[in-house]
Amino acid sequence: MNQSYSTADKQDTRQAQRFSSTSIAVLTIYSLVVLMIFGSRLVSPSLGGLSQLMTVLYLSSFLVICAFGQGLVIMVRGLDLSVASMITLGGVLSTTFMQGTNEGLYFIIPGILLISALVGGISGFGITRLSIPPFIMTMAMGLIVYSVCLGFTEGTPRGFPAPILNAFMQSKVFGVALPILLMLILIVIFTTLQSYSAFGRKLNAVGNNPDAANIAGITVKRMTISAYAISAACSALAGVLLAAYANGATLRMGDDYLLPSIAAVVVGGSSILGGRGNFLGTVGGALLLTTLSSMLSALGVGQGWKTVLEGVVILVALLMLREQVFASLQSMFKRSS
Amino acid sequence: MSLITKKKHITLAAALGVSMLAAGMQPAEAKTEDGKWLIYLSLSYSGNSWQSEAANIVKALAQTPPYDETVELVEVISGTDPQSQISDYESMIANGADGIVSFPISSNALNRTVRHGCDQGVLFFMYDATVTEQCAYNVSYITSGFGENTAQALVNELQGEGKIFLSRGVPGNSVDERHTNGAMHIFDQYPGIEVVAEYYSNWDDRTTQQETSKALAAHPDVDGIWAQAGEYGAIQALLQADENRLVPITGENSNGFRLALANEEYQAKGLSGVSAGSPPAQSGFAFKLMMEMLEGQRESLPEDKRNIQYPLPWVSAGDVQLCEGDTFENGCNTFPEDKVPSSFVTEVFNPQLLPELSLASALEGSPTPGATIQPLPEDVIENAPNEPGINCRSCDTPENLYELTTVEATVSP
Amino acid sequence: MTIKRIADSGLMIMVIYILIFAMYGAVQPSALSAYSIQGLFNNSLPLMLAAAGATFVILQGGFDLSVAGTISLVNAIVAVLQFDGALGAIGMLAIALTVGILVGAINGFVVAYLKVQAIAATLATMIICQGVALLILRAPGGYVSDFMTYELTGSMSGIPVAIIIATLVALLWFVFRRTNAGRNLLAVGQDAKAAELSGINVARTQFFSFIWAGALYALAAYFLAALTSTGSPSAGEPFLLLTFAAVALGGTAFGGGRGSVTASLLGAATLVLMQKLLFSVGVSSFYTGMIQGMIMVLAVLFSGAVQFVVDRRNII
């Protein structure tokens, strides 16, 4: 009796600690981004200004969207390797259905999201019901989806995105590009969904401890499947936007997003072992990666050094965001106060 | 050990002898059971306009009479992993291929397998990318000086002064390296030219657009862009940053880029430049050459003469001419916007070498109704210079490697 | 009990391999020639070694994405150095292994002692290694000695060198599994906390799993250089996903504690063989990926089903 009480107590404190350590992680990552944007003035005088910030935000928006899905999947202790193929699917379906007109856009986009959610759901089904490792299931699904896209388009995706989507990607309101506004809205929705909704709490519980979640009456398998479905839909949405951005789809359009989507999530302080995730951290991770790459582009160093520096920054960010570091920071803070 | 090595050398020498014998014996009569030539079309990956157009051209030619009766064409996609292509080549050789027309993934890694195939009497025709094994034919524009000529064209546009971006291809790729070395050879001669950003765009419009946007954030005052394929994305990035300012751009052959070059509104904003670079039509030329050799209409070439140059396309703003029909007629070289996507690579036809083709051939791989295969002109083969690591292994770099061939310097360094 | 041992020893994947090989031999009789078999194993070896390396890390419950970077890096180094003859090849091997072990040690240190999540840390080291590879070798090329190109891909007294190497690795695992280190590796994978309590040095075990992995990746890169007789700064990229597919095909559990290096060797060989089979039955090239994906899922389901039956029999 006594023992069980103390365990519960311990768990409570751990929960509280985890919460504040997550906030510190998020703060740290954003300070890094701000530091880097200001620091980039040293690289080039025209950097570090509003226009660079806008470019970074704009280019991050695609990554932020697919990283949300990846984050959910990682939270339930999985990994989604089908991100690249789902982006391609979104792009290919949108140019195929839209054929360069605005007709029927209202059901085409939801339709694409639904189809991809279904594909993601199948991955989730294989993982939860058939106990196929997430790695294999999502990789196989990625191969299958890619190959269907390849066969269906015979190598060349045809058609164009709807003109209105094109215009959307290029328009600005008060100097802010519309995709940035869309991203901000999505960040609010996604954060609410992940951290402040019943759905998010349940998902968190599944990630923390599936057995306990099951006992608590959470339908673990259904929650897990929905994480994969949402991830697939997010990637497809990124694909639709990318096709509108580049005015057409290609079959390899998603390739550049798989590893960055994982990197954004882990740099953002989420635990790959599940149960610890915060979307604002992920957004910070995505911004950090994009800022870094735009800064290195401007630096004019060779690709080799550029790549090395990117890796080093990720590693340093990871080292700074370790839980122990926060724990010691916290204890220092407590002692001094 | 040395014994074994020696034995290996003897075997090698013997194999070499056999292959020369085999080469002398062409045309071989190794047809498939149904009396057709078994030809493999081996691709790296399919998924961008360039790769599928090049493949479609070969597919269309193989269905054009009389090849529709005499050729069995099998398409194989190996992806981006050289090991996969090695494995696929081995399978093709084992299946009794008569010829393999291929986009090779690596210039060195396939050599051993290619040599093995040659020894079995298989004809290898590489298009666009090359291999350094001398028994394979390389049909490519790579040695035609894309990098140095476009660089000079850009320098000319900029009057020898200005900040420029380099939008490169795929990191660690020998073609990208060759182009960029050629370009830098020119840029380095002009102290007024400053390369302020260099980024990899993977020969893709979207990546070019994103990477150019990043570079523009740091250098909004750029004066020109030297680009490899994906150049249309650079225009979009410039317009996105400032819809009233464009700069001179040199790039490859996308339809969108050519239309933009000829667009007066864009010209007024500052766009000028030249469209050159890799033509998908190389695949068709390689295939027809191979078939002529297989059928005995053309002598095979000695091993040190198998690097065949495809001329560098060169279209500046003033040369852009819209095609009214579905072929390159009357010197036209660009299609109207509603016919093909902007990423469509225009150089799919060649009125002299490939009169059989039409737009449907490039887009869908279907033959042109009523067309028949026309023989290639007798003296069509132009030897390419040897370039170590590109199309030969133990050869010397020619002294005039980066000599300008297509454009002249109008500004002195 | 015997059945369980069979399932754990990777016999399932061996059965799958033999089945696919039989099918392949049936549709393509020339597949059974000595040349074809030697070629097949030469082509399989790099992936087999990479998968064997990754298995060490996965067995202790970790994850190692650095495989792609390490292979690129070592491959580039091998191609840049010019050593000839048998001695040169041995010297090169020593250098390759040193580099691989060094990368493994960095991974191991960051993951086991600095407690950074394995997937995140190895993502970073993978990117760094790729960058360094590009610094060493700017474009594919370089020099690989004739000895490596011909002897290492040839045969020794009739047996392809590739098969000998793979067998040696399988033997290594056979011995290693029976040592304390081997038992610790699996124990940590099953339950790190329990292992810690029972006195196993968990961090040390994790650290050394990365060392083994690094060494085997280096070996993979070394033989890749011999196979392609060239180096490439992006040589490792295709290995990233294939390696893990091979490990999963071999039936090793992601999350650790169950599986075997030998099974991963066979899993990798199966993946390569599958491509051959698909080619010879003439699957339309657009849909090759689809079939590959489905076979991967089916193979995992199959070995899972066998495991299930085995477990039930054990319970009863």
UniProtKB/TrEMBL annotation, chain A:
GO terms for molecular function: transmembrane transporter activity. It holds the Pfam family BPD_transp_2. It is found in: Cell inner membrane. Its main location: membrane. The chain crosses the membrane at residues 21-43, 55-74, 105-128, 135-153, 173-193, 225-245, 257-274. The keyword Transit peptide does not apply. GO terms for cellular component: plasma membrane. InterPro entries: ABC_transp_permease. Keywords: Cell inner membrane, Cell membrane, Membrane, Transmembrane, Transmembrane helix, Transport. It is a multi-pass membrane protein. It comes from the Bacteria. The complex is composed of two ATP-binding proteins (LsrA), two transmembrane proteins (LsrC and LsrD) and a solute-binding protein (LsrB). Part of the ABC transporter complex LsrABCD involved in autoinducer 2 (AI-2) import. Probably responsible for the translocation of the substrate across the membrane. Belongs to the binding-protein-dependent transport system permease family. AraH/RbsC subfamily. This is Autoinducer 2 import system permease protein LsrD.
Automatic annotation (TrEMBL), chain B:
One of its GO terms (biological process) is transmembrane transport. Keywords: Signal. One of its GO terms (molecular function) is carbohydrate binding. Residues 1-30 form the signal peptide. Pfam families: Peripla_BP_4. GO terms for cellular component: cell envelope. It is found in: Cell envelope. Residues 39-297 form the Periplasmic binding protein domain. Belongs to the bacterial solute-binding protein 2 family. This is ABC transporter substrate-binding protein. It comes from Vreelandella sedimenti.
